[in-house]
Amino acid sequence: MYKEITIENIKTFEKEQKLKIAPITLIYGENSSGKTTLLKILDIVHNIFTPWALTRDRDKRATGTPNPERGSFEDIKNISARKIHFFSSQINKKPLQIELTLNLPFPHIDQRHPLYSNNISEKYEYFEENIPPQRGKGKTISQKTFGTSTYKIDRMPDGSIRKMVIRDTGEGSGNKKKFRISALGSSRIFRSKDKVKMVPTKFFIEIKFFPGLKLSKVNKLEIKNINNKTLISFLRIPKQYSFPKDISQYGYLDTNGVKQNMKRHTKENPDFFTSDAGYADYKINIEKENNIWLKAYKYKYERIFSDDEKINIRLNKIKLLFQALINYKYVWLSTSTNINNEMKWRAFSYLVTCYIFGNNKTEYPEMEKTIKSLFQFSDKNFPRDLNMKNINTLVNEQFGGESIKGDIAWNTSKYIFSSNIIKKHSNAKKYYNEIYTFSELLTNADSIDLFVIQNFLNKKVSFKKFCVEARNSYEDCAIRFKRTPSIFGMDNFNEIEHSLVNRRGQKQSTNFDILLSFSDYIYGDITKAFDYSTKSGARSKGRIKLVTPHYLINNCLSEIKRTVQGFIPCLPNKTETPYNIPMEEEFNWEEIEKAIGPLRGKERRIKNFKKYFKSKGIKFKEITVSSPDYLRDPVKAEMAVAKKL
To answer: What is the pTM of this model?
Structure first.
């Protein structure tokens, strides 16, 4: 929910202007005093983050009829990335600035949270959640057979409705007859209300015009607490963006056709974030306020150093995991052979993670011996190569598979582990989803500093050092906003997604995301590292608990999207006086000059000369054009027209 809007350098409001928003807010004033501009601010914000919400396009495609409460692309083109800079009080000279004060819902928040303040309030939030039908026996409501298919509807004990179709495969007979059962749904909708903390948070947006692109882009995002202290900022990295070439890179497009479509879409319908390559990167800056990290230090990191025997065993296992990964790096740096042909980083990190987390019945000394046997050591006890014989033995034991060209290959099944491991170790069956999630955290961790994590695990560090290293972990990372490819026409708005990436453009967690996630496991076992909560009480697959500051942007964007769902936009072209700004490319200069004579010939010639002189490496102070003949003879123009520096 929006509580306040602050704007600067937008049409009438050249200086900072604040507008508090109540459940009922009246805006009144003289003509041209800025009433419509204030309403347009909401449209602008929503067009940046949820452009689909301001048009009827998706409604029309889905239902065949337009939504009367939505507009069309024509209605919002004046607040698009191509034209928004005309809203600037000083056109193109100063960025547009918008700051939203949001009420972010948090189930729990205490004084250690960086957003905590005395302005936090409580309210009831209403939720709807789809609950999948239960498995097992239910009461049959309806059953009909058509040909070889039987359609059955059951009411389950929890009140949900399960619909199934049972098809005769034609195989077998009697008790051995085989059927194919498919669940059709439907899910039960669970409605509930819950008391949450509403935390006031400021979300700052700076929109800047880039002359080279002839477009406006979001140049900076900032998240502040209610006392106006910036916690984290995201600044656009100005560079020439090209299409990602590797499939592991976030924003990769697989075919030339998809790439060309992306170029057409970004040209016809540019958004406020991405380039014509479909993405753009933003540098992350964490402020030096140490209270940002206080909760992470006190409630996650500090607790792993305990006298509890079970905590110490899990701590030693995680130390063993990271020592194995560091040994792999040693081999990669020292060996003369291509280690990727034997065992790629992704495969190796996956193997050791699954072994350590899944084999819960294996004693630590035996586990340590097995991990050490995966390497060949020199006399100085440094790993000099991989022991592929032992690695293949472990792969076969854990997954029933083998190593092929650096990857792990095994028969796909419901569980990632072999049947022998599942019978022996309860974690392998019960927590296979969680174990896989842990392994995904390390997928691209070969580019992060594992020694920092190892040092933090070996010895408890001071809070000051913790904060310094936590901020440093963002130096090699950025937030990448990418545009999803569209299969519709060019008038369709693509979704904008974002993720943390490393310097190679691959999705990656920071050192401290990884450290804090494993700290939760160390302190309280696998389940403590995951959030399984749902409003209905049904168990979900679980999500890793993340508290690092850059995830606050997810909270802000979610609140904006949730607000816009019930928002009826005040469409720009539906005001009393239509507002439309033509662009240079929209003029047909040939037709205009035919009607009224030469208009821009001199300007065009000067532009052509500038390009020609630049290609020749000629520096000039000014260009004077006195004859149309120079347009046909650039060499002559070079000698006679340019005043060289």
So the answer is: 0.78
